[in-house]
Structure prediction request, 426 residues.
Amino acid sequence: MKKACILSIIIVTVFLLVSCPSAIEVKWNPDVRFATSIDFGKMMTEKIINSFGNGNSDGLDKLVCEDADPVALLFHKNLFEEDYEPEGREFEIEFDTPDFEEWDDLPDELKAELEDKYGQDLDIIGYYLSDRKYLFDGDQIIDLGEDDGDDFPEGFSFKTVISKLYVSGSDIINDLEIVFYIGERDVDKNDRIKVVMDRPAPAPSNFDIGWNLDGTHKWEKFKSFSDLPAGGENIDGLKDVVNGIVIEGKDITFEYEVFLKEGYYSKEFLEDDHIIKAELVLWIPLVFDAAPDAFLELDDFLGGGGKDLFGRKSPNEDSITEVIDSMIIKIKMNNRPFEGADFLVESGDPVNISIPMTLTNTTLNFPINEEDMEKINDPANYPFVPKFILFYPDGGTLTIPKNLKATTINFDAKIDYQVDLSGEEK
Prediction:
């Protein structure tokens, strides 16, 4: 080994003395790899969450179930909460009306039928309701999205929206009929989704809203939820309404009417104060139908904080990029959620650099050829802040999994430059 080193030195020395070169060409292919933890899943989730805005609905609670797989959004709203106690709306029944017939005034055949139905120990002071009786109504407007919906990723819509209505309260629940009219605010009530809960079985959602004594939110325990609690009434057809809200920036209205069902009621029961609570819960997994040409942009996906990727602080600053002919950046991920998608990197506003990317297994390949390097080195195109664009030319499905991160980044560069004997680079 020592002899080989001495021989190499002698050869180089003789070459320099005999040839007297005017310049030396240096070619080098450095390959640098380092670990990273770029959280693509979090970036994509935040992009979706931000499209919902802050929401203008009082009492609308929102949680990102980041430990669910796929990640999901959970929304909760107490529909009877406004202007009432948190546990529900308290109301009284006006039974001294023509709707209620006193027991003594009922025909003997009806009395016998009621005694057979309700038992032989009916109170002699009671009332019979031959048809349902209106008790109260109301509405809630829920605003999930921004005013114009422009922030929602272009061409995507939620694949699944699971929605339920939960009703709970005092014993009166078993004698009620509750009718909901659900849809966009500017749509006639009779053209909206209609849900009739006829003598519903009491079913609270059991979502505890608020803060624990240790400062943690009570919703923390729901972060790993993968479905809604049992009970309640499913709302069929709400997916299209929710997609319209978010994508087009519309509102959703929940109108409700509450009726007491026909039947026999004791005076004591009717004189009680009654409580009813209705809750809306939405469960939205982050799985999307992508229409043809749908795309999702992730700004500053390499985490440069909006600064030049190669660390240049000004357009004319000397940089390593001047001696790089080309390079490829390989981003290794721990998951592969982008089936059927194409990829693009863009920089500039307006765009002045556009570079296609490819996906090999779980590795995103970001090639920068000689022409691209010339554009990057052009002061007119400074700074180079790559923006990641995911798009589906033929449509498809995008799923945001529980864990989607870049684990390693590999820089493979081709360096080719000349240095004359005075030390100037060429």
